[in-house]
Amino acid sequence: MDKQLRDQIKHDKFVEEVSHTVEYLKDHQGAVRKYGVVAAAVIVLAGAVYGFTSYQAGQREEALRKATLVLDAFVGQQSPTGGQVFKTQADKDTASLKAFSEVASRYSGSREGLLARYYMGNLLCDQGKVAECEAAFKEVSNGGDANVASLGKLSLATLYQSEGKNNEAEAILRDLVNHPTAVVSKEQAQLSLARTIMKTKPEEARIILNSLQALDRPAVTRSAVALLGEMSGQPQPR
């Protein structure tokens, strides 16, 4: 994978929008966490179970938080803030991958474990390890947490689009349009779908973008207008 392709995957606008997923999910626990639900008849037992699962969740979140700190580490001789330092970017990447790998392995199947695997996928893509990157995103996409799975699907679609596998990307994005989550909205999926099919199915792409352009959501509107402008400059199919 060449540098341009890696940059496209790493810096895709939708991937950037969800790069702070951990913080988002923690701030919206009411919408994205559905654990500890029990029948009213065993409400006393539920209290004990909730206390234990909350403790376990706290441990997982702390482990993931520590892993993400490696991503913010300074590269150079000395950190201006006194934080963690790596001599080279390669050293930092290796340490980041190791940190997330440990969380993903230790808490496999949990929300935090899947998020760690998601971060691994992005790091692997950045290193040009396409097969491993794809495997990571597929694992996340098939995970039990719908919100995290939607992140994996969006990134997997971005990877496929970057490789020219538009049919695969389109199928994933249509599924996301039909099954939006608290993390990946229907509008995000529609924008990404329009970008994917803008050359092969321009009329459908325009219909999608025109509908999004009419929404009272500035960020969505700006993206739709930008894509419509991009489409106006491309050759029309005969």
Description:
A two-stranded parallel ribbon has the order 1-2. The longest helix is centred in the first third of the chain and has 29 residues, at 43-71. Helix content is 71%, strand content 2%. The protein folds into two domains: 1-143, no CATH class; 164-238. α9 (146-162) runs antiparallel to α10 (166-178) and α11 packs parallel to α13. Mean pLDDT is 79; it is low at 1-53. By secondary structure, it is an all-alpha fold. It contains 13 helices and two strands.
Strand percent estimate: under 5%
How widely separated are the two ends? 32 Å
Query: What does the main sheet amount to?
Result: 2 strands, parallel
Helix content: over 70%
* Strand order within the widest beta sheet: 1-2
Secondary structure category: mainly alpha
Mean pLDDT: 79
Q: What order do the SSEs take from the amino end to the carboxyl end, as H and E?
A: HHHHHEEHHHHHHHH
Coarse morphology: globular
Key terms for this structure?
238 residues, mainly alpha, 2 domains, disordered N terminus
